[in-house]
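Example protein was shown:

_____
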Amino acid sequence: MRGERGYDGGKKVNGRKRHILVDTLGLFLSVKVHTGDIGEREGAKLLLAPLKDQFPRLELIWADAGYNGSPFKEWVKEHLNWLVKVVKGPSKWVWTGPGAQPPPLPQRFEILPRRWVVERSFGWLTRSRRLSRDYEGLAETSEMLIYLTMTRLMLSRLSRL
């Protein structure tokens, strides 16, 4: 039995989504795995709602454009008293007046500020063979393996000190 899966119409994929909350070093604070048919903002609510009293010093969350939207930002501010700042990439479409030259597009890959921290953390997960694909039947098992992988990573770093 493969467990519950969902279809994400925007990305055109079957499966599950992983939401992670990391600190500024990229170490995991919380993980939520759910079916793919739940949107980013609703999945983030599933991740953040149980954390109301666990991180009293947390004030700011950086998120990518998938979490943009004033209802989500307002929900986080109202329920958790945290601020959500969306990290936006460079705009590829710019309206210019008639006869004006558009600004040049970037010719190379640009690293978005603070976004690379989460992407690097996802990269650490994919180094684990068991997490490179979704083999698990239950979403809870996937969450447990993510925590286990991160614990192993942190212990290996501590042993080098």
